[in-house]
Amino acid sequence: AAGTPATRGGLVNSSRVRQAMLADKVAAQARELKRAQLALQRVEEAMAAADTDRTALRASLAAAEAAVDEARSEQRLALAEARSQAQALEQLKEERAREQQQRQQQGQGQGQGTQRAPVAGSADARRSRFRATTSVPIYCAPSVSAYEAGVAQLVRSGDSVLEVGCQLGRTTALLANITTASGFVLGVDMHRELNGKSGKASSYRCHATPAAAGLDPSRVHLALVDPWDTLALLSAVNARAIDVLAIDVNSLLGNDLMLTALSLARQLSRVLPGLRCVLLKSRSVAKVERQLVLPEAFAAEEGPVPRAWLPRVIPAVGVKEYRAAARSWLDRHPGRQRVLEIGCHVGTSTALLAEAVQGRGG
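== Methyltransferase domain-containing protein ==
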């Protein structure tokens, strides 16, 4: 019944083979299970990464919407500020015209030629080399959005526009779009290396010609001249009547220099006949503009002028207006005052200032 030894040996070997096969099968299943677990872990990680990307995308969309809303708000504020500046400028022009008419009438009545009697509350009657000789209004834009808003408000269809500091970018395209087919845009820029040509990125012009920038070369021209070289600039204008002058000094020099911007705007407004207005992009000029308190507005106010984060500037033409503004400011702000007079001649103005502050311990 137990069988022969050979039979027993065969049964033992068969059992070992089955056990080995079973062990191999179990090991293979364990490996498959481990692979499945790893795959499941990768799927979970991918799902977590997708959730993170989705959250980041939502945050980016929210930030983009906030930026768009902020840009729209800035544009609305810039338009409102430009309208208020235009209204204030018109009022100031009317007041100056009335003052000039009064001075002419008084001068004719006295029969003394240019020796006219001063008008009460006005500037000194003496002629000044700093007196404005042009009626072309200058509008100031402190930012790119305000600059583009000013372009949209001041430029008309069919206008000829001179863009100084032209970069053949978004502003030039906006000018070409507003002036339409009957208008013309002449861009002026310095001779410079194009952006990215040397491997370095900059904020300057990227294209050599209007056609390369996707603009119509029949209506948009680019002249590479020094805008401070008046003869070269007039040669580029080629006797064409310019309606609007747009200036971006920062694009020319890389710096926002207030006096440089104002001198260039004043110089070009004098040599371009028929010019309707000047649009100047300059944050520094806009900053000074916010500080200005015109003598007419200052005289109309009562009580002390409220303080601001920028010091107030009262522009005065002539020594009489200068003394009156200084004395009026000291009278409206009682208390101890410290006065710094630059350009002091130890004369009448100094004596008036000393008299005004002596009784206050200043």
